[in-house]
Amino acid sequence: MSEAADPLRLRPVRATDLDAIAAMQETSIMALGAPIYGEAKARAWARLGYQFRHDLLGEGGFWVAEQHQRLLGVGGWSPDSLEADLAWIRYLFVHPEAARRGIGRRLVERAERSACAADRPRLRVWSSLNAVGFYRAIGFLPERRARWPVQSAIELDYVLMAKRANRAPRAPPSG
């Protein structure tokens, strides 16, 4: 079956996806994150996917990208608890075999549209070092670096990045 016959599809995350998502996240981190962070740090980071996978069913919106009934990516947004106009891009991972095919970009665009529809046009993301170039390419600007403790004595360097979502122009009021 060609890609044209079975195009990439984005759909909301379902509870039945959670274990497959965590496994795909682990594969992605070990292939794409380990070269930057090293094997021990990447393995500690990858284990968090199983711990936090239920967050994908919470507030905001999360989607999977699939093709040929195969999970190729996941991502979405969560509302900030203090700032009413802020959404956090979260849990964006693409299977390493599907990297650089526009899947991450499509997932972020879907999250942006959804966050804007919820009146949250300001976007932020804690980017892993291996993803900073990706986020820059889609309009995010770095604000500061920080360290995230993922396990006892294991910290990951991250970059806080931000952008304003692209809003669709609103129609003028009829009068």
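The record above closes out task 2.4. Task 2.5 opens with a second protein, given below.
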Amino acid sequence: MARWVPAITIQAMLEAFRVLGLDDQRLRRDANVPEQPLDGGALLPDGVRQRLWASACHEAKREEFALEAGLALPFGALGLLDYSAASADTLGECCEALARHFHSVSCARYLEVEAWPDGFRLALVSAEARDDTPEDDFTLGVLLGRLRPRVAGFSLTGVRLARAAPAGVSGFAQLVGAPVSFGHAVAMLCLPTHLREAPLTSADPRLRRTLESLRPRDEGGAQGSTLERSLRSCLREMLPGGKLGAANVAGALGMSERSLHRRLRELGQSYQALVDVFRREEAERLLLEGRLGMTEIAHRLGFADQSAFSRAFRRWTRMAPSAWLAHATR
């Protein structure tokens, strides 16, 4: 399971719960959600999300509550993801925008648009077993709430959920307006082929171009996206154990190695380049702090020994660590 969750997702959950009449302030306190405003890229421990779901579901006491909450989430609560999707020209482009920006609201799952002979599907994919929170129900509700109001004649051919079937399923089908089945490996919305080219009533080419032009600035830097911030937090924890492989890090982030590389490519990054940048920044920070010797710094950064660390540091700075520190502090 991912160790972190974007703060924007926690805030969205609280807003949806408030819309449905729950006491969002009490839920915030019960889940230990920070009271102070959080910036758009902030991360919170995943335990906050789990506690929030436990409290909300206990208060709501209905099986379809999470799906209902996703549908109730007001447009705009998810920032860039909402506006990029709504400004697309067609439903297909809207789905692609949702998948492209999904990393801003999830560290544990990713979204894929899949073509099938009988239509296309918006699939919510995770490389690890799901926890017992109704996250998939909520997320599919959020996605449906972004799609359905913007296409004339919108319909679903079905909804698949990963959760076990509840005692009563009619409430689910009524909410989505389509058959709902349970116990699937991947949760998804299933749509008919003809809707892929259906125009969006909210299409705004100028806004879409403006938002897309901001992606390099907002997402391209070493710390510019939620994914990269999560990756750096994970590296800080895993490097001392020498677990540098992309597969290990991807697993800790709750995704497949293939998905990690794909999402980094979308940001114009590579895994190895980010590891290199992170190690250099951490090396310089630890050297300047002056609390650790060279051997311990090498260990913290996942190097086999001090010599390997020194060689890498020379490659980064063209100076030995001791020489760089003397130069930096004189």
